[in-house]
Amino acid sequence: MFKPCVAALSGLPLHGKSEVATYMAKHSNFAKRDVDDFRRSYFAAQSGVVLPEVEEIDIMVRSFRFMMDSVGKLIRMSQSVVLPSTFSRRVFKDTLLEFVSVHPEVSVRVFRFDVSSLNIVEARLKKRLEDGTNSNVRSMERYHYSKTIVEPWPEGVSVIPVNAEGPIELVANSIFAHFRDLEI
To answer: InterPro entries recorded for this chain (predicted)?
Structure first.
């Protein structure tokens, strides 16, 4: 059990963020809030398709705001939250940073999932397609495109790199280790 806190799992698509967040929610008191779920809920007709860039960014910013509103409600109920999201663009990161400025009493830790093996990414893509997905990353071409739009976290934001090539349990435990000071 952890005091109310936020674990923001960032990184490229297919780097295991959602799987690790699901594991964390199952094995701790972290609640999972995924921006893609908010997008599907509020913008169902525009989910799982490639949109013009301006429209895509607008929908995602609004989805991030809905997600962060939910996070605020959970924190007020003393609930810890894990957020698996690419956080690719600065405007998406800003929604988390706005939350931090409004809630300075809440420990928010940002992690960046790294996977250097394309074989692992390809295997995860194959599994994603077999399982079915609403993600718009459905090809290696789209994965490589996503690399071109990821903007760095702003200067001053502490980002913890995570080797996300290992088993989900090991990656999740490495995240939990960064919250040991908040155990209750």
So the answer is: P-loop_NTPase (IPR027417)
